[in-house]
Each structure stands twice: as C-alpha cells, then as structure tokens.
Amino acid sequence: MKQKGSITVFAALSIMLVAQLLFTFLEAARNIEFYRVLQMNTDSALESMFADYVFPLWDDYRILGAAAADSSGQLSFNNREAMLRGISNSSLGGKSGTLGLTGSSLLTADTVDIVFEEYLLLTDQGGRVFQAAVTSYMKHNLVYETAKTIYSSYEAVRDMRDSYGDQSSSITDALAAIESAKESEDSAPSLSRKGTARGGGLQEPDSETEDNLLTSVVETQKTGILALVLPEKDSVSGARIDLDQTVSHRALCEGTASETVSGGWYDQVLLNQYLVTYLSDYTDGAENRGLNYELEYLIGGKAEDKANLRIVTAEILALREALNLAALAASPGKQAEALSMAMVLAGATANPVIVEAVKYGILAAWAYAESVLDLRTLLQGGKIAVCKSDYDWTSNLSAVPSLLSGWSQAKSSERGITYRDYLRLLLFFHSCDRLAMRAMDVQEAAVRLKPGYENFRMDCLVCGTKVSATYEYVPIFFGFVTLPGVGHDRIRIRNSAEYTYLL
Fold first, then answer.
1. For position 209, what pLDDT does the model report?
2. What pTM value is reported for the model?
3. Domain boundaries, the chain
4. Which of 403, 465, 467, 498 has the smallest set of CB atoms within 10 Å of its CB?
5. Who contacts 470 (Cβ-Cβ below 8 Å, separation ≥6)?
6. Do the Cβ atoms of 312 and 423 come closer than 8 Å?
7. Are strands 110-121 and 461-473 parallel, antiparallel or unpaired?
8. Sign of torsion, CA 53 54 56 62?
C-alpha cells in the first residue's frame, strides 16, 4: 500500500516565507545592479549626445558645441531629450528600443523621462564661456612657459607704445616753431640775417628742402590710409555682415548653469594664440566666409571688410610710429641727423627751445615715413622687426618726401614678424570679452554658409549640462510568491549625469 506525501500547513508557510526571502534578496540584488547599469546608461546617453557636435565649427575653428535648437534655429531641448530617450531605450531594451536586450533579460527597463536641469551655452557670461572653450583646447597646444614669454613680449611692446605713441602734435609744433623762427629773423637787423657772398665761401641756409619734409608728411597724413599703403592693383574684399543680427549685438539665449568662468593673463595669451591660428586676415586671401578679414573684424568691429582693414592698418601704422620713434631715440647717428636739420630749419636765431621742438617734429615725421614703408611691406607678406636697428632702417631723412609720394617699401627683415603677428599685438590691446564675442560673430557667419546650417546660432550651442533621467522596470522575483501586502507595481529609479566640453 502506497503512502501519500503530506506536508503540514506550518511547513508550507515556512517554505513560502523562505522562498519569499530568497526572492526578495534576488530582487534586491537586481535592484542594486539596476542602479549601476542605469547610471552607466545615463552617462553613456549623454556622452552620445555630446558626440553630435556642430562639425563645421570644429573643422574650421576647433570649437565644440552641441546644437539645441528647433527647425527655425531657436533654443529648444525637445529634440535632444527625444534623442536621449531613444538612445537610452535602445540600450535598455525598453518598449521603444529596437536593439536592446529583450525576452529573458533581467535588466530590461523603460526610460520614462530625461530632462535638462542645467545647461551652459557657449555665449554665456559675456563671452567668458567661449574663452574657456578656447583655453581648454589651446592648453594642449601651448605650454605655460612659452605663453609667459609671449606675454612678456606683449607688455614690452605696450610699454614702448605708451611711451612713444601719438606724436602727431610734434610735427605741427615743429612747423609752428619754424614760423616763429622766421618771424624772429624778419624782425632782426638785415645784417645779422644776411649771408656772406658766395665768393667768400658761405651760403645762407636753404631750408626749402628740409621744410618740405614736414609739410609733405602733414599732407600725406590727410591721404586715405588704404590708398597710401596698398597698390592700386590689390583688390579689397567687399564682404559684409548684418551687425544687428550678430552675437555681439542681438539679444542672446542664456543658460541656467550657475558655474562662473574667470580668466587671467595665461588665458589671454591662449585666446590670442587661438585667434591668430584659426581666423583669417587680409594676407590669407580667404574666401567663402561671412567676413574674409576675420581678425581685422575683431579689432575694427565694422560690418564691412574694407572698413575693418582701414581701422587695422591705421592702428598698425600708429604702433609702428611709436616703435620707430623708440628706434630713432636709441640711434645717436639719426639723432645727430635730425638735430642738424633742425638747426637749419630754426634759422639764425638758434633758439634752443625752437631747435628742440623742430628736432622732435623731424623725428616724428621720419618715424611716420618709415612706418608707412613698413606697412606696405607687411601687407605684401614681408616681415618687419619690432625694434629696429640702424641695419633694419630703410628711409633716408632727406628722401622722405619722394619715398612717400612713390611706392617705396621697407626692406624685409628675417628677424622681423609678419602682418598677422602685428595683428596679434593689436589683439593684446583689446578686451578679451569683446574679442570673444566678435570671434563668435564671424564664426557664426561662416558656419551659416554651410548647407544645412542656414539657421545656425552660437547661443544655441550647449557646452555643458546636467540631466536627470527617470527609469521604470517591472520586478521579476516578487511575482513568484504572492503574500498579502506585497505589491508588484513597476519600480522607478531616478538619477543624474553631467558632461562638459570645458576640461
């Protein structure tokens, strides 16, 4: 006779409790793994989004930014949030996923929502975020020690410019002193002003040629700068942009991140180095950009290439005047030449005050003439030394009028620097914030010329963000045992992730 198996109610309940305990442990372990996997998923999805940057901006300017805009170019995160949900569900095998784990996978979940809590736009903080993006890239290309040397050279040039700059009044003062000397001679007894007959070996000084030096410079300064330094055969770009629609002029979208970005001298050097490396100028012959003279726009800020080139050439001319005047001050030979001519122009009065004023006017005129020749050479691709020696000097004092009226150029120097390098010096004299905003003006204009980027906006580029993600999954092991009070609802997990290009 077979015996039937039996189990007591107490034993059955005990087995159920033990099973429930085991399944609870399994579900708890699964939940812990979900936390890890879902955090990895959020990080991965966010990194995937930032891998979708604006390629023309990176290819031409080495700036990274993920566009967050609708079809009209306005700031919107709808597309980006949908993109993140799609990437996430594909990875987790959720309801909308097509490539994820399905069927018997123990880690299948649905992405309920992904929201951008904070975000930093490239145009935020008046250009400081853009500067941070530039320095993040340039720190890998310019070491600290080299940057410090460059900064020291900038300061040396600035000091010379401040010491010798704007000597235009010296020429007019010299002309006034000459007139004063002539009036003094006219009021003096004729015997004191008359020279001895030629047969006696003396002549009355003829100051007409020397006087022409100062007046010719004054007349030349009235000439348009581009006509003075560019040959007629050289054509100037006619490109222009609408200033009212540029980054630096229009109302911009603003990010919500509270992160502040600050810069120092090192960042200033890196920014300047970046600008002269990746932006175009007159000597490049660049085309098919919003403005072809991008570096000149950073300094001039005008809508047309020609207007910006006019401003830049005038600034380089003024800088060269100061540097050339410093070179004259350091040359005893040229000082003696100027003094000799000043004594002739001062006439028989030999008033020390008049002679000194005329001398400084002659030096200023000479420095101006040499600077015009320098600028002509630079615009033709030559090099001009920052601090000239007598060997580097080109112009002859007596030949200044003919040099200015013709098409003479300064001799190029192997130890000199190019037109682009002088632009680098000018950039150092301008605010980094202004340079950053204007750099974004020309970059935006250039990217908009690319097919598919007609509505591109720099203030819709995300360079850093924090997102929060909500996931939902069904508990598996709770379903094997049913106990009163134990529900089988879907479980939600919320986490966050951050990413930034600003390393």
1. 46
2. 0.80
3. 9-126+460-500, 142-193+203-447
4. 498
5. 111, 112, 113, 114, 492, 493, 494
6. yes
7. antiparallel
8. negative
